[in-house]
Design brief:
Helix content is 55%, strand content 20%. It is built from 17 helices and 15 strands.
Amino acid sequence: MPKFSAPIITISAIYPGASPNEVENSVTKEIENAISSMENVDKITASSYESLSVIVIELRTEANIDLALQDAQRKVNAILSNLPDDVKTPSLGKFSFDDLPIINLGISAKMNATDLYDLVTQRIQPNLAKIPGVAQTNIVGGEEREIRINVNKNKLQAYRLSLPQLVQLIQTSNIDFPTGKIISDEEQILIRLAGKYKTLEEIKNLVVASTPQGGPVYLKDVAEVQDTKKEVKLINRIDLLNSIGLSIQKQSDANAVAVSELVHKELAKLEHLYSNIDLKFTIARDSTEYTLDAADAVIHDLILAIILVAAIMLLFLHSIRNSIIVMVAIPLSLIATFIGMSLFGFTLNLMSLLGLSLVVGILVDDAIVVIENIYRHMEMGKNKIQAAYDGVKEIGFTVTSITMVIVVVFLPIALTTGIISNIMRQFSIVIVIATLLSLLVSFTMVPFLYSRFGKLARLTIKTLFGRFVLLFEETLDRFIYWVQNVLRWSFKNRFITLCIATLLFLDLLA
């Protein structure tokens, strides 16, 4: 999608352990009162949940989202002292399509679930995060390893220990910090105390107290130490099988298609590297596929339009040269459109490609009208140069009016404001640029080429092509004569025609 930000600001604050009523009175209302004086606010929606406050600010379309975000940040900072001490610093953000992941995938392998989670967090996720253009990777689901300590209250009291004391002992024994340095004439060596737990036995054998006789009391004497997994709150499945989900977000200025290609290459390398555990990545969603499909559709439409235009020109103007001249007008207009897109700072996204796909059929309209009128002047006995000049001069106003009808339809869309305008602006401007350029090509390149290479074709039944075109024109004349008869009958029987039209309209509605 084109890069734009919706005029929406979100404020979230975490108040651990608080009830929804307490969150509303102590946090939500304080923040609401602070931001109520903001400018260009259209609507404020506040929600209070257990341990969480969420406020959504909807701004007017003319508001500057970045300045509004800064204003909201200042107002929230001013009331931080009024919030309870346990409330974490509120976080502010703005809604943007760039924050949506471009790829969602699932990871599975023939190994223990907790070991797979460690592999993803320690190996796979860092490898994907370092890819150029990747902004963030988020894990969904999985079974994370957890060391659980179940304390025996009676044993803890027997050794005259409190639970806070035990927690502090465990935390202070699991540290890694510098203790000093050794300096010699040649070098300086830093010394660190490595006190992190490495095995489960080290945790169990942690000395937490001493007996009256002076003997050590270990953690395993007062608690049960288990190597287990955290409680699963999010579940990710692939084909009904549990897996680990991974979402990948791109940087705001990165090309989504290029990032997706790099991610796919890295996934293939990782699958090959960990083939011994049958590591598999399953792409659940890749948003760049739609962009690539849109680009392919533009190419297919372009090829189809050129073929159809060439066929129509052959049938009606009876000349391969005329068909080639019209076919040249399409790529000329499209290539020049890319120049206009570059000047406006547009990118190849779904909306601009949709505009290119739609405009392919419009690009040939002006060229066909001009070349048909030039051909008519050549049939009147004029030479190529005079026919090209007179043909364009005679039909110029009509061709311009045809083009301006399309321009006045799509140009106002680009001049509006709001979210819809942000999405549709590139679509409408691309159509306007391409249409105006097709008008320029029909007034310049088409008569120039025709004045040099145009030729008046004479059909005879002696050639296969001549017999086919003459048969086509004969069939077309019969069709035109039949339509004329239908029109004559309709004007003579107006009441019956009106009834038939009404019935068809009602049948369409049904």
